[in-house]
Inverse folding.
């Protein structure tokens, strides 16, 4: 099947319409919107928290550990989706039991990691 640039014209038009809509709304809000500058509106916004004190506060290491664990487990769980999508194709080329056993081993390692983190007490916030 030959490659024709004209086949991508609808996608280009969609980008132009989306960009025009965004730019048009920004321009309309600049010309038609109300402008009332108040002290509250000019304050920096910190995720619902009043910005008092210094910006160089110390955070507990637990926040970072929980974030790293979340990312690790999230990435590992995302590997389940492609495996589930190609399971039938892999089963045709390889033994279905082998493909399934590999995923069970992967899940066992994931569960062992979760149990390790749990036993270490990383999920207990009250512990010092």
């Amino acid at each position: 099947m030959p490659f024709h640039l004209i086949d991508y014209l609808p996608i280009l038009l969609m980008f132009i319409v989306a960009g025009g809509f965004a730019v048009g709304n920004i321009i309309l809000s600049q010309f038609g919107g109300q402008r009332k500058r108040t002290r509250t509106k000019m304050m920096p916004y910190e995720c619902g928290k009043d910005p008092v004190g210094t910006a160089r506060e110390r955070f507990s290491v637990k926040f970072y550990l929980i974030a790293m664990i979340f990312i690790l487990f999230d990435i590992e769980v995302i590997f389940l989706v492609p495996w589930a999508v190609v399971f039938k194709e892999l089963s045709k080329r390889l033994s279905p039991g082998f493909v399934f056993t590999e995923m069970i081993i992967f899940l066992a390692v994931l569960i062992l990691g979760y149990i390790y983190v749990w036993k270490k007490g990383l999920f207990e916030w009250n512990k010092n």
